[in-house]
Amino acid sequence: MTQELLSVGIDIGTSTTQLIFSRLTLENRANPFSVPRIAIADKEVLYRSGIHFTPLLSDTVIDSEGVRAIVEEEYRKSGFEKAQISTGAVIITGETARKENAREVLSTLSGYAGDFVVATAGPDLESILAARGAGIDDYSKEHHTEVLHFDIGGGTSNLALYDRGELKATGCMDVGGRLIKIDRETGSITYLSPKVRQFYDSAPPGCAARGAPLSVGEAAAPERLAPFVSAMVSALEEIAGLREPTGLADFFWTGGAAKMPLPAAPVPCVSFSGGVADCIWSPPEDWLAYGDIGVLLGRAIRESPAFRGTELVRGEETIRATVVGAGSHSTDLSGSTIFYRGVEFPLKNLPILKLTEEEERGGPARLAAAIREKLRWFADEGGLTQTALCLRGEKNPSYRAVKVLAQGVREGLEPLLGRGFFPVVVVETDMAKVLGQALAQGISGPLLCLDGVSADNGDYIDIGAPVANGAVLPVVIKTLAFQKN
Predict the structure, then answer these.
(1) Whole-angstrom distance, CA of residue 462 vs CA of residue 476
(2) Dist. CA 200–CA 185, nearest whole Å
(3) How big, in percent rounded to 5, are the helix, strand and coil portions of the chain?
(4) How confident is the model at residue 325 (pLDDT cuts 50, 70, 90)?
(5) DSSP assignment string, 64-121
(6) Which of 273, 330, 400, 448 lies at 20 to 30 Å from 147 by C-alpha?
(7) Rounded to whole angstroms, what are the CA distances from 133 to 9, 128, 365?
(8) Which residues pair with 350 in a beta bridge?
(9) Is the peptide bond before 446 cis (omega within 30 degrees of 0)?
């Protein structure tokens, strides 16, 4: 039995806004006597919008009506109506997610994306979305290797480190193609980001020849911009372990973001997506093609001896890597044991946080530290948000093992509890009831623990009210269906 859905993905980024319309074919791959297991059997891109510069009213305010006009016009060009859309996502990414009215813009556009995720993506979540959109999670798993992925946009570069398919770390750097904007007609500089000004004011290490500070209004030339472009490339090389550290990686690290540690050895593979990635693989001849330094940055990365000396993986998407096509709504029922107390159902669009197997088995202290560290992946400008923790669990755990697991989970979720949220724990194996009881001994207030559900980082979960006399919970796992064709 198959079903077709029409989906749309809308990405409002620092530099560009774009849409993708797709047809998803869903297939139930469970046997007739099992609960449904819905998977995406096929994806077909029906329409790709043009790449639009994201309209802004000021450096801190998005032009919500301008964005809405872009979306409405692309709907008209595509021939699709809002009523035809079954599923989709609106994601605000990059510096745009940090604008004053980001949530207002999301609310304005929510009706254009069907019944799915509408969210601002902080730098860590954007790193995950971009890497998965480029297919790097699958590449790392299939080739049994470590890959550091750079999604280089207009204002920031989002980093995601995958090792054999497991997400190990994320990060964000102030490296992008529109940190300097240039009038294509006059060739003069029209905008310098704070990071550019800081570069010339604070004399970062590793940059002996910076020249005189740049200024708005002066004529731009590649050789004049080269010191700043070169410094950005060096920072990327440092974070990949491809050159000796000089402090440039620290200088370009995005303020407020946790720093990804420098690797002990060079990463074996690196990959790129984002608008600048197009300028790495097939740069336009005109270096001012986009009215910024994106082309120069792409060329400098391509010509870098350090990057050319490692394995470069070309992602399946570049500028559209973060544009999500839709969510596959995989409807299921929770397992045979559940524990819930004081929960108001339904719960909608909770991001999934999944740990590595090593972190889960590392004892309460390591488990707690991993949870606290990774909770920030799903924080937006308002801070932490309600999140669902996904664990593998054990098939036949001892009582002691359950207590140890509960201790680590309880301590790890303390930052979330401190913000007024409650624990939502999803376990793949059949142990939710006993784990919930153990958690309840040290946690007051609402608590939910369910099993029989498998999900991954970057997925979202809906949990309905109990059915079958409270024995099971309806669960919908929403998997972002990244377009790679």
Answers:
(1) 5
(2) 26
(3) 30, 30, 40
(4) very low
(5) HHHHHHHHHHHHHHHT--GGG--EEEEEE-GGGGGSTTHHHHHHHHGGGS-SSEEEE-
(6) 330
(7) 12, 8, 33
(8) 461
(9) no
Torsion angles phi and psi, residue 443, rounded to 5: -130, 125
Closest CA to 305 of 370, 243, 361: 243
Model confidence pLDDT, tens digit, residues 68-81: 899 999 999 999 99
DSSP letter (8 states) at residue 254? P
Cα-based distances in Å from 97 to 13, 103, 104, 249, 380: 8, 8, 11, 23, 8
**Confidence (pLDDT) at 29:** 65
Taking the C-alpha atoms of residue 268 and residue 310, their distance in angstroms, rounded to an integer, is 6
Would you put residue 297 in left (φ > 0), alpha (ψ -120 to 50) or beta? alpha
Task: List own/partner pairs for 65-69 with CB under 8 A and 24 or more apart.
Answer: 67/12, 67/17, 67/105, 67/108, 67/109, 68/108, 68/109
Q: Taking every pair of C-alpha atoms in the chain, what is the biggest distance, in angstroms?
A: 74
Whole-prediction pTM value?
A: 0.72
Quick check: helix, strand or coil at residue 227?
helix
Distance CA 230, CA 225 (A): 9
- Decide if 295 contacts 284 (C-beta within 8 A): yes
Name the average pLDDT for the chain: 85
Rg (CA), the chain: 23
Q: Exposure of 223 by Cβ count < 10 A (0-12 exposed, 13-18 middle, 19+ buried)? A: exposed
Residue type, 421: F
The residues near 83 (Cβ < 8 Å, ≥ 6 apart) are none
The answer for 232, left when phi > 0, alpha when psi is -120 to 50, beta otherwise, is alpha
What does the buried/exposed string (b/e) look like for 247-284 if buried means 16 or more CB atoms within 10 Å of the residue's CB?
ebbbbbbbeebbebeebeeebebbbbbbbbbbbbeebe
One-letter amino acid of 173? M
